[in-house]
Amino acid sequence: MDAALYEHAPANVTVLYAIRVPTGPEQTVRYDDGSGDELSVPLGTTAFVSGKTIFDILPRELKNLAVRCRARSAPHAFEWMRTARAVSTGLGLESEGLEKPLEELSEWEEAKVKTYPFVSLTMPP
Questions:
Q1: In 3D, which of 48, 42, 38 has the Cα closest to residue 1?
Q2: How many H-runs (helices) and E-runs (strands) does the chain carry?
Q3: Which residues contact 87 (CB under 8 A, 6 or more apart)?
Q4: Non-local CB neighbours of 88 within 8 Å, separated by 6+ positions
Q5: How far is residue 30's CA from residue 19's CA, in Å, rounded to a whole number?
Q6: Residue 73: how many CB atoms within 10 A of its CB?
Q7: Sign of the Cα pseudo-torsion (99, 104, 105, 109, in order)
Q8: Is 91 a domain residue?
Q9: Are 26 and 44 in contact, with CB atoms under 8 Å apart?
Q10: Can you give the C-alpha Rg of the chain in angstroms?
Q11: Domain annotation covers residue 111
């Protein structure tokens, strides 16, 4: 989910609409899972994944862990991670200590920092 989550709940739906997309040669996506799989995609492509599919393929012990885990967002997350590097999949950050220290972020309140479960077993209203 690409959302700041500080003071705001995540959206129930994500929509991406492009008026113009980059032109040029296609990019090659290389899967970083050791498979050697590659996929040719046009510039401007955005990857979406199915959380349900990911959960379904987890082994039982990881499913048990996932339903008990929670994630706490950083206050002003995009400001916090601006100088950090993404992992090769683009779905997370490298843990290299490059994030901005919390005490140096724009003013924030602990009560507005959100914590969410990794897995929601119910549909939102």
A1: 48
A2: 3, 4
A3: 32, 93, 94
A4: 32
A5: 27
A6: 20
A7: positive
A8: yes
A9: no
A10: 17
A11: yes
The CA distance from 47 to 26, in Å, is 15
Each residue's pLDDT, cut to its tens digit, for the chain (125 residues) gives: 566 678 877 777 777 788 888 899 999 988 877 889 999 999 888 777 778 888 999 999 999 999 999 988 889 988 998 889 888 777 778 888 899 999 999 999 999 998 888 887 665 55
Q: What amino acid is encoded at 124 in this protein?
A: P
Q: Are 38 and 31 in contact (CB under 8 A)?
A: yes
Q: Contact, 27 vs 41, CB < 8 A? A: yes
CA pair distance 118, 65, nearest whole angstrom = 9
Domain-located, residue 20: no
In which domain, by residue range, is 58 found?
27-117
Specify the number of domains making up the chain. Answer: 1
In a domain, 107, yes or no: yes
